[in-house]
Specification:
This protein is mainly alpha-helical. The protein contains 13 helices and no strands. Helix 1 packs parallel to helix 3. The longest helix has about 40 residues.
């Protein structure tokens, strides 16, 4: 039978700077590590309050250096969300620097240069404290299973156009990133399926322009969201688009849509599939304004097709009214 692991024997009590730092150096749980290191930073800041005089011994100075090095080794593999290795490294070095300052006699701590060094160390420690506190919130959210989204700041359609997104109310923990990527992959599958259905619906409806325009807007939505178009979906959507264009030409050109205008729409919308199929490494180099311009152009071409459908519906309604008037008059 395996014996339970006894808790480590600590040399320093808490609450104290050395006590919390010692426990952080031995912690293996991310939340416990952040809790102990926050406690260490708070206790260390208390030693610099005006009117308080405290001095570490040379032995304590060496212990602080050793514990800070162990704490960095314990915290580095934990990969705390929002608390990078550089922040952890600079914060612990700031603690070492403040420990060195508290080892000096009072008369050697006076002077603007020494005070400036202490303030720089304090800023590094405070930054680490804020990062650790944010990491604690992320850990609590992750363990609670919360996945709450913040509401948008106004109407996103008016504020940011096709590139608008809702900000997630959480820091990027590894689990949150995996869930977000899984949701994005599923959203992309659903969106490409909807776009395919729209283009294919043009064959079965009396009005092929409305589903075709809806399909173009879905492609614009996928481009704005950064979804990649797999090869098999690209082939399916491409065939459906070409077939829908043939139906559009038969029904709307040239009665409701001039031939040159339809040619422009077809020329400007067909390359979108090549853009959506681009690799992620190349997409990362695209300027956001360029992507927004492509989305806006797709929306414009979709509006051209949708307007043709509106013209056709209006003309049919007008013809029906004339026929009713003629019947009533006869």
């Amino acid at each position: 039978m395996t014996e339970p692991n006894d808790p480590p024997d600590f040399s320093y009590a808490i609450p104290s700077f050395l006590g919390f730092l010692e426990r952080a150096a031995s912690a293996t749980d991310p939340r416990q590590f952040s809790f102990d290191l926050i406690g260490a930073s708070d206790e260390l800041m208390l030693l610099f309050k005006p009117g308080r005089s405290f001095q570490f011994s040379e032995g304590q100075r060496q212990i602080i250096r050793r514990l800070a090095n162990r704490a960095f080794g314990a915290g580095r593999p934990l990969e705390l969300a929002g608390c990078g290795v550089d922040v952890l490294n600079r914060g612990l070095r700031g603690m070492v620097g403040l420990g060195d300052a508290l080892t000096l006699p009072e008369d050697k701590r006076d002077g603007p240069s020494q005070r400036q060094r202490e303030l720089a160390f304090m800023r590094a420690v405070k930054r680490l404290r804020h990062a650790l506190y944010a990491a604690q919130i992320a850990i609590d959210e992750e363990r609670a299973g919360a996945d709450v989204e913040l509401p948008p700041l106004g109407d996103l359609r008016q504020l940011a156009g096709p590139t608008a997104t809702v900000l997630p109310f959480r820091l990027e923990t590894r689990e949150a990133i995996e869930r977000r990527e899984a949701r994005r992959a599923n959203d992309a599958i659903v969106l490409w399926k909807r776009a395919t259905d729209c283009f294919q619906a043009a064959h079965a409806l009396d009005d092929p322009a409305t589903p075709y325009a809806a399909g173009l807007r879905l492609l614009s939505e996928g481009l704005a969201a950064g979804f990649a178009l797999p090869m098999h979906d690209r082939i399916t959507i491409g065939i459906a688009m070409l077939s829908a264009q043939w139906v559009l030409h038969r029904v709307f050109v040239p009665t409701y849509l001039p031939e040159p205008t339809f040619t422009v729409v077809r020329t400007r919308t067909n390359p979108i599939l090549d853009v959506l199929e681009t690799e992620a490494a190349e997409r990362a180099q695209w300027h956001p304004d360029w992507v927004a311009g492509l989305c806006a152009d797709l929306e414009r071409q979709a509006n051209v097709i949708a307007n043709a459908a509106h013209d056709r519906a209006y003309e049919r309604a007008e013809l029906m009214v004339h026929q009713l008037i003629a019947q009533q008059a006869g």
